[in-house]
## 1
Amino acid sequence: MRGLKKKLRGEVPFPRTPAWLAAALLAGAPAAAWAQDTAAPAAEPGLQLRTSPLLREDIPAAVRGTLPMFVTGDQVSGQTDLQTVIDGNAELRRGDTVIRADRLEYYQPDDMAHARGNVHINRAGNVYDGDRLQLRVEAFEGFFTDVRYRFLNEGHGEATRVDFLDSQHSVVTNGTYTTCLRQEGPSWLPDWIMRAATLRIDREEDVGTAENAVLSFKGIPVLAAPSISFPLSDKRKSGLLPPTLGIDSQSGIEYTQPYYWNIAPNRDATLYGAVMSKRGVQGGAEFRYLEPTFQGEVRADLLPGDRLRERDRWDFAAKHSGYLTGVLPGIVGYGLTINRVSDDNYWRDFPRTSPSVTQRLLPNDFSASWGYGDYFFTSLRMQKWQTLQDVTSPIAPPYDRMPQWHAAYSRMGWGGLDVNVEGDYTDFQGDRAFTQQPNARRSYTLAQVSRPFIAPGWFVTPKMQLHATDYQFDGMLANGQRTATRTVPTLSVDSGLVFERDASYFGRSFVQTLEPRAFYVYTPYRDQSMLPNYDSAANDFNFASVYTENAFGGNDRISDNNLLTLGVTTRLFDPDTGAQAASFGIAQRLRFKDQRVTLPSDPPVSERLSDVLLGASLSWAPQWNFDSTVQYNPKTSRSIRSTIGARYSPGNYRVISAAYRLQRDSSEQIDVGWQWPLNDLWGDRGKDRGPGRGLGGDRWYSVGRLNYSMQDKKLVDTVVGIEYDACCWIGRVVFERLQNTVSSSNTRILFQLEFSGFTRVSLGSNPLSSLKQNIPGYQYLREQVTTPSRFSNYD
């Protein structure tokens, strides 16, 4: 202890009985409590370490009452079991509470401590400094005058008085609060500060409530309210969230006021009301829940009497998933998804509330699944789509599946064989006005058997498949049939070699592989030209699909094949970590006969040699990443499809990504995104304090993403902004223009002022969500990644 060290150095008088020991005895501390500090215990056989309750973040009440009290100081006097007085460098320590002062008096019968002169309290990492203290130590009840305080969340302030109601609650009179770090000098003023007649601190909920409060920024009052609540940690709390004031090219001036309701640790809700100058008043709510066997969320919005569309507007979305036990052996899982909106124009007018990645196709489905052991799995699904049509650009809606039943049985290594059998029954229902083909009930069975032969340097896997399909149509096909069947066998052989050697490139050592691969597939021709197409589409030509048996996804088209795919890949691995530093691959198909099975209106594939597929991936250094895939036509000497992307990220808050995408005769785009500190331009790189903590104060960041169409010679999507980090506050300004259709877009200006550890004030929708969604690798400048510990501010 600090007091004991001073005495041993002879800096203060050393009484016959050590002051710290006498004080412990006078305070009534159990003998065992100090005996363990005076002598090391003798070694015992089988002695094992145990975790101490003193190392817990929250000391249990039952343990706190049994903890010993230690006091130190220059001079200690008193009466046993009654009173202890410490003069000079006085310190009282009990559990997670430390009190220091020039003079400290402790009365044991009522557990009361009186302290005067340079009084300092550290209670579980929260620090108070002032002039005069009266406190019941264990109950932590009392008052403190002329106080300066600092909490674990870096919030601090001053007050004329602090009343401690108990260990979790206190009341601050005439207090201030800010998270700006205090600078040297009497003239220092924080960039932002809140002043309140009364501050109520609730450590149980980690919430502060300010009454008759005024929030000032740069000396200018920006917000006054009779009551303001703010977080003291990242724990959720009920209350009004910061309002949003926005200017939108579609809805006009928009004001939104949300309210957050922390119902329970596993349930919460957000309610809001909005006023849009061009449309009217909107209300909405979101409810989330998480239970041991199920979870989900429900969201709804209502805009009655939209003045622009002259109708009521609404949307509803829900997700629910869970599992059941005891119904069948094993676990039964289930899920429900609902997405509905009021009209076809909803996605265009409210793009930010779209519940689907594909804004005009909203899925609604229910599914249930059951697995038995490691071999059998079955599921039931009912899916229905809401398609939002545009008269200038109509789309064919997908088929509803009402219902779909699927079952699969799989055994690996069964007598050396891999066996898989799956069956499926689907009732397809669609709108004949768009589909131009009858609805149907389709059943199929797919059985496949393979025998892998695998050795360290090679593999060969022959496989046989049999695909049998049956259709029952609601109407007649063009040939007058109401039913159809199809049986298609497939034989394939996948093989490859793996060579390995030590290599060195550019001064680095690697393990290099050379992996030639050959894949042969034969599927006889079966006429499928009269069959409708419910779920098949052509697979993309890439390294994942080039070594597969079917050129189509889905089950309505099985391609006839007699082809050989040849490819080779070489990889470079770090010999110490095994990390892949580079990969290069090439593949091409050799077709021995024309492919006659095609999708409707597509011509047969007659080219004997396919396009060449080229791929490269580089991760030469941790901060660099490069990927590219090119589909090259040797006859025209032109690429048909190309994707080239690179990313450079030398550290936190520094990332630049670029991508070039080409689809010949369709689209050609360049996409660039970034987050970068502008201070780097004048040589001030700051200090990387880790994710969620920024690079230091007084720093500017540029953020953005540009998507440019070279074919149309215009920017398609634009997000450009500036962030300024002043350490205790952050300012953001973001310009956003996103394309809705070929001829229309939505433009917004987003502004946000974030008072670190207190609140955010936004003009327009929250720019953080836009930056995170549009910029690959974007990082928040302030984000709670770890919970503060009382030991991080330990006395």
Note: The CA atoms of residues 179 and 373 lie 56 Å apart.
## 2
Amino acid sequence: MARYGRAYPAPSRRIAAPLSTLPPPPVDVRVTALAPNEVSIAWDPPEAGALGFGIYLDGVKQGDDQTATVATLAGLVEGRTYLIEVDSLTDDGRSDRVPLVVTTPDVTAPTVPVGLRFVTATRTSLTVAWEPSTDNVSVVGYSLYLDGQRVDNVSADTLVYTYYQLAAGTSYLVTVDALDLSGNRSAGAMLDVQTERDHPPSAPPNLRATTITYTSIAVSWDEAADEDPVTGYDVAIDGELVATNQPQRTAAFSGLVENTEHTVRVWAVDAVGQRTSRPAELVVRTLDDTPPTAPVFAVTVGEEAITVAWEASSDDFGVSGYRIDVDGEPAWSTPGVDYTVDGPVTRRHTVTSLAPGANYRVRVVALDALGQESADNTVVVPMPPLPFLPISSPVYRLGPWAGNARDEFGVDWVVEDASGWASTPPVRPASTVLGGVDGAWSGAGQYGSRVITLEGVAVAPSQAAMLAAKQRLVGVLHPRDVGVLRVEDALRTRRARVRLVGDVEAVDRGPLAFSWSITLQASDPRRYAVHPVSASAVVGSLPGQASLALSLSGTYPQIPARLRLYGPIKDWTITHEESGTVMRAMTGASLPPDPRYSLSFDLATRQVLAHVPPDVWPVPRPGRSAVAHLPAWFMLLPGLNTLTLSGQPLAGASGQPRLVVEAYDAWV
């Protein structure tokens, strides 16, 4: 900014008289008083004296000679420089003139700048103009103010000025004053002005849907217009703000409900923080999905179980799984494939523990990814009644025959003695301890086989019925076949796999009754539950691990189980946490993600089978080479059993490996 100083009268200067032959001039000519329109001077007479003194103003003699040594010159113009001279008059003539340069003070301010006016404005600047001021001497410049604060000085020939870096839409007081050479400042001309209001960005144009599915929407829009740069966009769906000042001009929304309207709004945001006053708006409806078709299914009825098999359902969005409902309650569900120890099962399941003679409402439900269910396809399934009526407990069953029961022909079969079923077989010491490496497990010995003898009496309603009952008893189990003996009491039902030992005996006790005896042998002394206990562990990502928990009842200290391992996985380990035993893969052994490839382990027989697609190998083949030797095997224990699957990823394969375990509660 230019700065201007006030002009003050120049000090008087004494000018020494030059050497001359003329009479001596006055001495010490000086200013004694100075005013805008007059000046008073004084001097001393020369040493030789003088007859009088002459006074000159700008070379013009002022009046007659005077004898006084003081004088006042009036009628001067303020701010003007004058030459004042004084000489002496003697008998020898006039002396040289002694000069004195004097400037009268300028005390008159310039006129107020007239015509101060608004020229133009933007959001951040204002331009004003004015007419030139006048002054008795000279205007040297103008000062500019904004809201009372001086912001700049400009020269006298500048009559237009622009203020910058202002706030948009704001009123300001502009003031302009003039300055003369002596520093006199005029009063200020004032003007109220206002910058242009800053307009928010326009609504983003061309808001449009780019993708619409059953559960998602994707939208895009074009760039919004604004005086300032647009920095981003705010996005909302159904009144909920989901993005703030995002730079992208696209948005996607998932997890929506099918066949539902959704309102998308988009605002533009500029560099000064302004937001679109009214957003762009788009109403979009997700696609309308129809429920899956009702699966066609068939039910195979057993004595206390039903097997449900169904055909694939179709859906325009995609079937995600199936569910079996029994009497309105979910009995089982699958994402499409059930991984079991018997292999992957698709669209088939057995529901157990059903009551004989009862009617059950069975429904197969198809589900899609939206959670929609297929139409009701419930059928009523009657369970066949038991072919006998219990008359005492426990009930012994071997195939179609039942002891402690009245059969369908009216014959009462009474069990008078059941030796070998409730007792514990003797311990047979192990010949060697293998320590869990292979074959037998470490222990004090093994239980021997179980021999069960059932004896009793049968009472028939007629002699013909008695004869027929004998025939049925003799044919209940062929000597070369393996049967299942089921014993059911008030607490539980248990079973054992048995063979017939010797002949079935039947001795008459009268015309309608006979004594009978059946001797059976079970190579495995354990008495198993009828239905298995199963669990599975799924590893979310590799390398990693997952555990399953299996709780087993019973009294047998070692309980065999069946395991099935599915890929993709490499260098796997299966750890029985309670015993600390680890079954591990042979180094480098792996399973692909195809569920047709798997390894099954029978902990009772220590058999490993490798399962492959039939077109690769028609039947399962030995897979023992896939398992490392030390340590290798374990048995499950009564109570809690925790199995942990871990391993390494298989290069280029995706999926989640899983371990499936199935075991039966066992008693001795």
Note: Helices lie at 463-474.
## 3
Amino acid sequence: MLFENANEYPYSSQRMVTYGKKGMVATSQPLAAQAGLDILKKGGNAIDSAIAAAACLTVVEPTSNGIGGDAFALVWTKDKLHGLNSSGPSPSSISMDAVKEKGHEEIPKFGWIPVTVPGAPGAWAELSEKFGKLPLIEVLQPAIEYAKNGYPLSPTLAYYWKAAYNNYKKSLSGNEFKHWFETFAPAGRAPEVGEVWSSKGHAETLRLIGETGAKSFYEGELADKIDAFSKEYGGFLSKEDLQNFKPEWVDPIGVNYKGYDVWEIPPNGQGLVALMALNIVKGFEFSHRDSVDTLHKQIEAMKLAFADGLKYITDPGHMKTTVEKLLSEEYTKTRRGLIGDEALMPEAGEPPRGGTVYLATADEEGNMVSYIQSNYMGFGSGLVVPGTGIALQNRGHNFSMDPNHDNALAPNKKTLHTIIPGFLTKDNVPVGPFGVMGGFMQPQGHMQVVMNTIDFHLNPQAALDAPRWQWMKDKTVLVEQSMPSHLVQGLASKGHQVQIASNSGSFGRGQIIWRDPKTGVLRGGTEMRTDGAIAVW
């Protein structure tokens, strides 16, 4: 059982697990975690707390998310797990031909072309209306105060902010990008560690969202500003696209992994990749984490799952196969049978015919939230709606320009999405929320954290601290510097092209909260790879 073994991982930082009873908030930023805890102490529940932390993160970690991004959530409340998909579709006026007419054969990373409808404000409003206890404007107040009055930058935040500034300074030359520099580099440079940054426009936008239940963003004053900015520079996004958006409540998908149920959001999210990989490896027995055979089988399973995911996952209405077929025992056995002693080149199979922030919250009543939101690629498109602090996402970059691909660009379509929240239950009883942010590292992080927890009995902090690997492409695997050398050499002997990373920035940043079903005691872990913190009551 998860609460019977407190072993620390021998190569970790040996940080201690955080314990609490009345409430817990785990995020990548201390200020956001504290904001979530403050809302709990004011009488809010775990859902209110998650919204508060999420809104706060758009201010205190804009390098990874923003008001103009998307969001997903898994919410345990009243003895049931609920899924929320608040990712926005492509604009109704976009098409492959229209993109080509603008001189692009592939979808660019920056500018208006990759901008899709933002879903994060809608997620906050939907969660608040359905499950929250406090008014949305009160829940958003900590974020409003930080945006208005400012806060000092933390070390990891400052590092990524400077890297983004240097990249954007080289890459963004059009007049439409000037508002990003005015907002995030007001002194003509990225702010430094400890330097105070604020955004009055961001504060006013959050106030309008809070007072109108996000209606201002999708059909009012803020929608008008987004629409005008898009029209000024020939963007595809329109006020009509914003008006037509609605967050979608979905049934979570899951697999039973060695007695525990692992839950993810269904496509268009890539959580299915984590589930396919876990389905494959559950057919093996693993006696030690520090084993070449263990790592080899994990990597091979993930490669096979990703090959399928990148081919088939898109807007559910456009998928040429189903979740059920990809997770079927028949198909899983076929994929598992491909794993041998040598590293393979991953290829998609044929199923049977027929820059992100993650946070977790929990309260005394047993409510728990696994929540994730992102602008993609750090700050996103490089576009900030003038005077609003709204940094728009570039999620449309994931669309394919191949008309025969499942994830081909089309109007009013949701693209393959990288951000995924996770949740663990056992015998219909909640264990708790978990997640690992970081682009296509996310399902890989989910798999490793779940196996560290269930197969190797590591506590939440140790499960996060353990050295990670990341499959990149073909036979290339990136590993952290803390990975023991004998494992690196062993993987190389099996044909893996192993590269040792210069830093841990690409290996994801996660949070975990487990709840003891007998006592209600909460146990939390947060990342050493970021400025993570757990606020506890």
Note: The chain has 19 helices and 21 strands.
## 4
Amino acid sequence: MTETTSGPARGSRAKGGKGSKGLRIERVHTTPGVHPYDEVTWEYRDVVMTNWRDGSINFEQRGVEFPAFWSVNAANIVTSKYFRGAVGTPQRENSLRQLIDRVVKTYRAAGEENGYFASPADAEIFEHELAYAVLHQIFSFNSPVWFNVGTTQPQQVSACFILSVDDSMESILDWYKEEGMIFKGGSGAGLNLSRIRSSKELLSSGGNASGPVSFMRGADASAGTIKSGGATRRAAKMVVLDVDHPDVEAFIETKVKEEEKIRALRDAGFDMDLGGDDITSVQYQNANNSVRVTDEFMKAVESGSKFALRGRMTGEVVDEVDAKSLFRKMAEAAHVCADPGIQYDDTINHWHTSPESGRITASNPCSEYMHLDNSSCNLASLNLMKFLQDDDEGNQSFDAARFAKVVELVITAMDISICFADFPTEKIGETTRAFRQLGIGYANLGALLMATGHAYDSDGGRALAGSITSLMTGVSYRRSAELASVVAPFDGYARNADAHNRVMRQHSDANAAAKRADDLDTPVWAAATEAWQDVLRLGKKNGFRNAQASVLAPTGTIGLMMDCDTTGVEPDLALVKFKKLVGGGSMQIVNNTVPKALKRLGYQAEQVEAIVEYIAEHGNVVNAPGLRPEHYDVFDCAMGERSISPMGHVRMMAAAQPFLSGAISKTVNMPASSTVEDVEEIYLQGWKLGTKALAVYVENSKVGQPLSAKRKEEKKAEAEPEKVIEYRPVRQRLPKGRPGITTSFTVGGAEGYMTANSYPDDGLGEVFLKMSKQGSTLAGMMDAFSIAVSVGLQYGVPLETYVSKFTNMRFEPAGMTDDPDVRMAQSIVDYIFRRLALDFLPFETRSALGIHSAGERQRHLETGSYEPSEEELDVEGLAQSAPKAETVKEAKEKAREEAKAEGVSETQAPAPAPGGAHNSTELMEMQLGLNADAPLCFSCGTKMRRAGSCYLCEGCGSTSGCS
């Protein structure tokens, strides 16, 4: 623990100091008399970033200086995103040293000016330790710090803002203006619209009010026109409405209706992708929506009782609705378009440290920051893999003592930043300086769990995550209490002292009650227990410097800066990663965490090499040589052959939530086969398990994003008449005699017949559907639909494309079927293509689409795997489709030579990255035959991936969120 000591008077109380004490800073990583920069090897690189769609150069800066151990991707992102000054001018930063010095020296100067340090020597140690931690990718501040600190522009350090709006036109117009200024600065904002009276209430003039949904339209249009920070990405925002607001149903349905519009316009040929030319015609697309529910409402859902919707001005009951029906509408909307998310109001305010100053009503766009209206939070995240250590005998441990020291250092720096920070509005500045909200968090949890041999969805994994989170927050509040003795508690503390200390006891009690699992988490729990005891003791004596200390943010761009394999609290995306090479080009490597995990699980070096080589070829661990099936779940990822169950994500959030001041930015991924009932269960369990907020995303539920690239290429081709060569698909008709299957079916009481005919060498070639009487409208439409699908199949459209597009389509008749393999269908079309998938697609393809037979589902219940046994596999067919051994061997040898030059271990079995892949997301799609429903990056055109509730581009570091 850092000590406090008496010292010479420094400044006045207005500067935040009592004038008699300062912090003694200990060295953790640095050496006296040696600057951290002098302990690493530096090299010069050229950073050239292109848009892969048209080959144009997005960014170019040559001769930039970075440590030799920094990856190409991290150096590229820091150079293009964070270096300040016009490119090509002497003022342009060209070294990581300059960037770190610009920020760290500003923090040191502000700390000295405001009385944080006991002596100039302590200030120097602080500067060196902070520089070392950034240089070695141990932690990173959020992006606004790197953008703004130490420059001539406003010193904005916060990424997250919460606004407020009242029921007056003046306040609503202020909302539009304040939001716009925040977007202009490159950040995001959230607010609750529940104070605005509903469309079912009267104005003082006697007419009906417009309602919040109407005003959302104007704010959405404003956000769509303002590009964040002058960059290419759009603004990020969160809109919240209370569940008892009379317009809550209209709020829930806003995005559902717009999603239908998107699909209709897309099918008509318009460019409706995120960032597309025609997407601006669609409303409400620039915000995440969330409904704020109460315990009263959730209990009414469980009991099936009525729930009152209340007027905003009088509080009187305007309408009564069936709670279960309203909850169902929320789940249906989220199932279709991922909005609205859900926020649990009573849980959030139960952990509120400053309730006497106002309730928590909203969150930032990614839902991790939750505190008072008109406030902000600056973030920083630690790289957890930097604290995993191996001893000489190969035993692993988490370095809790060093982790605590780094947390103390970072919290001190974050609090110092509030002393000099600028804010977008005067009200936000006043609230933030009065309550000094901080948001320390971490990244690389998924990698840490895998490396230590823990399944993400396991008691051991949750225990380790909980212990680290508890230690982080406990040490943060301990440091906050120490800072209070040096530079005074936050201004709002005296009024909220009882509540603040009550919340500290809640955290401490949760820490004491948490389950200990194994030798890795138990020492961390012990360190956390000690920290919380200090918090209770010091907090009662000194008060606290900060009303809030910790959150779990998406860690998008800064996660890439730290070379993290996983973001925030997320699991790994896939086992094989896409790696850029210094000399240009790319390769695929198996995650560095996989060999560590296998070693932890007790596998010998030869076994590790064989398993890693298998993963490199197949992208998953199923049937890897020598790998025991009980260890498969350690290597489960967010997507792929063995993806983590939705409840696995919720349980991990619940394990960390009691030890966080704020909340967790995370989307619960759900397979395409998920039902509305599944979404309801996730929302219900999220409440019961004590999470503060949840959002779900059902695979393939939104309009596919990558279509715009193809459409733009087609437009470009039309504009270039000199290219006269045109390739057209050729129709392959079926022979006169063809094998076929006729199936009778019933869906929701409606009967029909389907005949599916194949080519002699296998492969579906045509489909005939018969329903209703000949000459009826339905029969005619079925005939037309059959012809369209059949012609498409004969022109080479893959059956899996039809299956992915038409399954989960919802319309009547729907319901129970008489097919044991497909017990429920959302429509006739949904049933037909599920049946065709079962009859004609290989297991791997339809399993990736979430389609399994009754026998496979039974096998999953019994063994935990849908995979057919060896007796059931078509070994001969698989052998015919396998790649030639010589080709694979040659590719591997070539890749190993490149890996050796890059310093990558040969046991990782690298291979050249496929030509169509440009990052890990696209590589995973190609290997596993999946579609990650994510937008294309505005800057470089590559496929983005989820990071918390936002999207992140691995190629250039752009994000769709606020952090």
Note: Residues 153-572+644-701+946-963 form a domain with the Anaerobic Ribonucleotide-triphosphate Reductase Large Chain fold (CATH 3.20.70.20).
